[in-house]
Amino acid sequence: MLTRREFLELSGVTLSLLHVNRLYFAKDTEEVFPQGIASGDPTKRGILLWTRINPQVHRRFKKDLIVQISGDPEFKKTLNKNIPAGSIGEKEDFTVKIDLEGIFKPGSTYYYRFVYAGVPSMIGRFRTLPDKTHDISIGFVVCQNYADGLYTAYWHLAEEDLQLVVHLGDFVYERIYGPPRVPGRDLSLPSGDRVCVNLEDYRYLYRTYLSDPDLRLARAMHPFVNTWDDHEFINDYFYDHERKVWDYFLEGHPAGRNREKILRLRQEAVKAWLEYIPSRVKVDMDNKNPLKWATIYRDFDLGGLGHLIILDGRSYRERPPCGGRFGIKGCPEQEKTSMLGTEQFRWFRERLLQGGVRWKVVASSVQFSKSQTDGKFGSLDAWDGYAGERKRILELLKERNMKNLIVISGDRHASLVAEIPDSYEKPYNILGAEFLTPALSSINAMEGGWWKKNWPHYENLGEFQRAEMAQNPWIKHINSINCWGFSVLNLKPNSAECTIYSVNKYRKVRGRLWMRALFTRMVFLKKSKRFLNRRGISHPFLSLPNGVCQP
Predict the structure, then answer these.
(1) Which range among 112-121, 333-342, 531-540 shows the weakest confidence by mean pLDDT?
(2) Which ranges in 354-442 belong to alpha helices (H)?
(3) CATH superfamily name and code, 1-131
(4) Are strands 514-521 and 542-543 parallel, antiparallel or unpaired?
(5) H or E stretch covering 454
(6) DSSP annotation of 540
(7) How many CB atoms lie within 10 A of CB 353?
């Protein structure tokens, strides 16, 4: 645990580093490193470092790239690594990744920068994972359509004291969905189409999104652990296991239902993601099985306090059941469909049963909790469409008497907090909690108005949200009205506390960030309280000390 003096000293270093990095945006470092720098997938003794060199600069100078790592932000003593000029080029879109494993101390803070042709990059910071800890914080974000709003949330996230940031997916959006909602966020794909049709289109999106200084600042200040959802490839896609190809609901896509075109596009989407996202994933692009091209589910030991399990809830999933996705009454097929696929589910089960940690923190791109209003499910694209597989997870936890599950999720473009019962049909005990973070910038239900189509008798969104919570008593909070931002999960031996922050995505409001809500989940208690009834749950597990997040 940090003493107050150590905390103040660390805070001073952080604020000073942020100030220095913000000044870099006005210098020639932007010309040389236009997409900034990043670190990813930390281990106890290692890290992945990333940057991209401006192609025009590299063609002019053809210099080696130098990486400098230090234990202090002034780089008084450095460890230098050299990347030969010949290894930087068009094949990887001039991106550079360097895997530094086995050379750092666990639980330590390090600083890094790249130097090219005498020009230094921004200064990055990362922390290796600790051997043991009693207090750890991780951030998590999701859904950042560039055209839908500013990245104000990243400006604030950069100031947080975090071990790492989990990105739950939709890092880029593969389609231009309409005119930008804020000035200066126009997009124009190289192909001239409105949806990505080749590798250059996907690369263009990553380059454009990473031109945002707030996103670059957050990636410099924290290591990111990324998974993907659907927009990194094609919206609402799933895998057709019979044809061995991905499919989707989108009508009029240039690839149509042509298997070869879809597989080629998939390879290009994955390649662009691998180029721009520093992640330790298994890659085998020559495998005859498309599902083996990239395996991104993986896990991290958070110092014995937490076990972070990153899921891929999109690549292996079967077609959502019941002939639709939103506002559907449901059908028996929900009990038979799989989101994770056979191999990933087996892996996930093994990770859940691994002992030696207090908390199982599961990163799910989509909502885990059941949500059915007036007999209709909100989204069968989420875990409600794969209820049988979810039931198997809950039964496993119940059988092993595990009550330490924390699900961090996204995709809904809302904030949500819920208890996870041992059964959604006959709830008895609490097994954990779900914290769903709002979109970072993408449009929400208030802006999109999609809820009206299936629940037209509600006069406004607030009334609909209250009905949803009343009919799903495990859900304690929802805000789809005026909430964009990020979340922070703090783990201690006897509590998992989540703070959801909301910002104004339409203006770069600098100053105090609005803290919308604070949630605490206690699990290591002598007795487990029962659900008293379906409409009013009374127990001490989940509390909202700061009140419900209001629009």
Answers:
(1) 531-540
(2) 387-399
(3) Purple acid phosphatase-like, N-terminal (2.60.40.380)
(4) antiparallel
(5) helix 451-454
(6) S
(7) 12
